Amino acid sequence: MDLAEMINKYGFPIISAAGMGYFIYYVWTWVTTEIKPVIGAANGTLIALIDRIRMLDNDLIRLNQKVETVMELRGKTIEYERIKAEQDINKTIETPQPTKTLPHRKFTKEEINDAAGDD
């Protein structure tokens, strides 16, 4: 039986409904045999990637906390060093160094006039 005889015998709506049924069956079998396994594998890969992103996020949070702690401790160390340096500077200012004094002698009028530049 060819297509024209079937349309004459059963009618066009019945034959087109049977053709659509076969098309739906073909697409359904193709999706279940070809596409579904690929989607399953992609889903597994997606879950693995999401887990890795979560682990990296947790690592980033931990690393950020460590950096903040180090910066805080380093800031305290810098502040301690600054205070210590200020104390050392203040200590040296409070205790003046002995100065060398020249022996006192009396200058003559000629030496004074020569130093003043008066002729």
Can you describe this structure?
The protein is mainly α and 119 residues long. It has a domain of 83 residues. The chain has 3 helices and no strands. Helix 1 packs across helix 2.
Distance between the termini: 147 Å
- Average pLDDT, all residues: 85
Radius of gyration: 49 Å
Shape: rod-shaped
Return the structural class.
Answer: mainly alpha
Total helical elements:
3
Tell me how many strands there are: 0
Oligomer: single chain
Main sheet record: none
SSE order in H/E notation? HHH
Beta-strand percentage range:
under 5%
Unreliable runs? none
List keywords for this structure.
119 residues, mainly alpha, 3 helices
Secondary structure layout plus pairing:
Layout: H1 3-10, H2 12-94, H3 109-116
Short structural summary:
This protein is mainly α and about 120 residues long. The protein has helices at about 5-10, 10-95, 110-115.
